[in-house]
Amino acid sequence: MNVSDLALSEDQRDCLQELVNVAMGQAGDSLARLLEVFVNLSVPRIQVVSNDELPKALAGLLGHKNLVSAVRQGFHSQLEHIDVRGEAIVVFGDTSFKELAELLSYEDAIDANAEKELLLDVTNVISAACLTGIGEQLEIDMGFSAPSLLGQQIPIERLVDSKHGWQQALLVEINYSVDNRAFMCHLMMMMPDIAIQALKTRIDEILEDF
Amino acid sequence: MSEESAKDQPKTLEVTNEYAQELLQRLDLGMLVIDKDYNVQFWNRFMVLYSGIASEEICGKKLFDFFPEIPEKWFRKKIESVFLLKTNSFITWEQRQYLFKFRHSRPITGGTEFMAQNITIFPIKQGKKVDQVAISIFDVTDVFIYRTQLEEANIKLENLSQTDRLTGVYNRGHFEELLKNEYNRSQRHHQPLSLLMLDIDHFKRINDTKGHLAGDAVIKGLAQAVSTNIRGHDVIGRYGGEEFCVFLPSTGYEGAMGCAEKIRHIVEAMIVPFEEDEIRITTSVGVAVLNENMYSYEKLLQAADSALYISKNKGRNAVSDMFEVQAQDLPKNSEH
Q1: A153 near A119, Cβ under 8 Å?
Q2: Whether ipTM exceeds 0.90
């Protein structure tokens, strides 16, 4: 599979961007109702990155080189008998756990365990809201695995071990902020080669219907 | 129906209500359903067996009334997110060991008191509407126990580790252990035993001017040079930062001095490559030999240490023995 096979055409990119935008609108609405605060979501940025460029691309999207905390969550589906699998990584910068705890109504004191659980909970809420939305737009039924911690206060290059069997990945980045709070995080949705192929086929079908 | 036609038409199992009930009841995982008011609607056999609460007893009643240990506000937020986002939510044992405080199925071989649980909460969709959520509970006490055992084993391994990471020679703890054994054996059999203590001259200067990685390189270089120039039954250990010890079994004064002088000479001639640089070092050595007055192996170490101090005083890149110390009556354990 070479690079040109995977690159999205202008139409495909516009279509995907539109679908993701609609999904994000819905996700923002759900999150606002759940957390009872207004959640600002950036316009999703979509790109296809190669394995060796990924760390650089992530650093570029995150816009800083500080230490981060991150949680990953897998999602999986089938499209025309092709595995559509990917992982969502939610990256937290200098997180104020006190603010997160308030957002999610934690009553317990915030110890090390509670901090981890907060990161997992926020990730689940954020990624599930967005991914389900995207799945609905693409008319695919998605399953999710439990979120797990990639690391706390680790350098960005340690987020993704790029040795694992893929050459290209579709990367969708959205950042979240909450009105009147310092809290901010990034959602990175990534799908490897084989999933991109399936996704492109589905996008073409949607384009034909217009 | 003949056998032939049964083969032709593989039949999907018809899941009747009764059948589904039996499946859900017998599943080896906890399963319950609650509505928006937290009333329990379904409570399977797993839940009955571990909680001791019958299905008739809890169904139609609030979950919190039976399990006051569940942090209510936190749990409500979890459940609300499932109703609202219509997506799964998870609770893993690593963050919270359990949601329901159940005893587990390893009362004998366990080690932890309560069942570790992985929990998935999922919406029960009826069309676009979600009026109930289901909670499934996996017993992962085994995983919990294995993980705990693994962590304990790792700690033990670390304590037991015998080699120094940087140089690959024995670390101080293990070296002293071996020295102690050799000391005891030598005393018993009235055999000679000698000890060399050596360190790198002006090591701090190398660290300060060329950096810690250069410092590491010369430490490694010295360890390798010494290791390859001693006999098979001689033992080397890293004693401190840039300090090494070598004990020479069945070796008296003459042999020990010869070995020390050989090491000094080899190190003097050695080049340690570091990046584009070539670093030269020298070493100072102190030599001690076992005698009847040494009632512990520590005395032997002390004597070698004092002799090393004499070498430093001589202007470094030198070998001294413990008899020079006695002649000068120097204080013990001095700074180098």
Answers
A1: no
A2: no
